[in-house]
Structure formats: C-alpha cells, structure tokens
Amino acid sequence: MTVLESQGYGRQKGHTASYRGVEYKINLLRKVTLEIFVNEDFLERTVETITSISKTGSEGCVGDGKIFVLPVLDAITIDDELRGPGAI
Predict the structure, then answer these.
(1) pLDDT of res. 58
(2) How many domains are there within the chain?
C-alpha cells in the first residue's frame, strides 16, 4: 500500500479563498490517493472495506472518493526476483 498526498478537481468544483483582501479561486482540492495491490482473492473484501470505511454517513456524499480496479500484468520483487501473486 502507498499513500500519496494529491490534488484533484471533480464534482466539488473547488472554492474561493482570500489573501490580503483579494479573493481568488482554488480549483484543485487536496486529496489523499491510496494505491493498494492485492491478490484477486482479496479484491472484493478490500473494495468492501474501503467503501464502508470511506463513506460519509449511511448514504455517502460527493467527495467520498472513487475506487479504480485495474489489472496488474505482473509483480516482481527486486531483491529476490520473486514473481506473481507471491510478490504482492
């Protein structure tokens, strides 16, 4: 798992701020990006866990985030060159 500080623009549309009396628009909002690689056996459980923990309230709100599921062709550990699911 990797945690990244990021900025993004989506349905939240940013907000306005003021500096020395001058108002300006902030389009990119601060966000957190998680990169999590799991074996296929753990995929659904991982998605369900992230969804249940990240949802605001029982119905959720704009800004709760998105989950993208992508295929990984291979994984290789550099030190011992282990490949495949064991490298994850």
Answers:
(1) 83
(2) 2
